[in-house]
Amino acid sequence: MTPRFDLIGMVVSDMAASLAFYRRLGLDIPAESDGLPHVEAVLPGGLRIAWDTEDTIRSFDPSWTAPTGEGRRDLAFLCDSPAEVDALYAELTAAGHTGHLKPWDAFWGQRYAVVLDPDGGGVSLFAPSDPAA
Fold first, then answer.
1. In the sheet that 7-12 helps form, which strands lie side by side, from edge to edge?
2. pLDDT digits (tens, 9 = 90+) for 34-65
3. Contact 21, 10 (CB under 8 A)
4. CA 127 → CA 25, 59, 85, 118, distances in Å?
5. Which of 5, 9, 54, 101 is least buried, going by the fewest C-beta atoms within 10 A?
6. Residue 99 and residue 83 in contact, taking contact as beta carbons nearer than 8 Å
7. C-alpha pair distances (Å), 102 with each of 9, 42, 65, 115
8. d(CA 34, CA 32)
9. How far is the CA of 99 from the CAs of 11, 53, 133, in angstroms?
10. What is the SS3 assignment for 126?
11. What is the distance between the alpha carbons of residues 120 and 26, in angstroms, rounded to a whole number?
12. Do 88 and 126 touch, CB atoms closer than 8 A?
């Protein structure tokens, strides 16, 4: 048997706030999930993403403590165009989410930006600078 990568798990302090953020990024998460202690969504290609409240984690790991500091995890969302990177960054920051890196043309050939999710995790937004390339 060969193990296969199947799920990205995140621990959140406010399930509803986290799910609202990821819905804005296009993930299909039912509204009735906001009050649940564990939520999963299937991503294109079959990979799953899951959110667990801090209380859920402590229910089976009483010694768990929330990590501190930045850069503990990052997710990245491919956008259709550089303009979509800019628009999505503007939408998320207008909704009150913290912008970490404003959209810029990165030296590696992408329009790139970073917004922090409600738990401080970095979420990169990117698109090829030249979509024809």
1. 7-12, 48-53, 38-42
2. 999 999 999 989 999 999 999 999 998 888 88
3. no
4. 14, 40, 7, 23
5. 5
6. no
7. 26, 29, 31, 8
8. 6
9. 21, 24, 28
10. strand
11. 19
12. no
* Dihedral, 71, 19, 10, 118 alpha carbons, nearest 10: 30
Calpha distance 38→51 (Å, rounded): 6
Collapsing DSSP states into helix, strand and coil, what is residue 78? Answer: strand
Token duo for residue 7: 């799920």
Dig out the tokens for 95 from the structure: 């909704």
98-119, pLDDT tens digit by residue? 999 999 999 889 999 999 999 8
What is this structure's pTM? 0.82
Q: Which pair of tokens denotes residue 2?
A: 């060969």
Contact 21, 29 (CB under 8 A): no
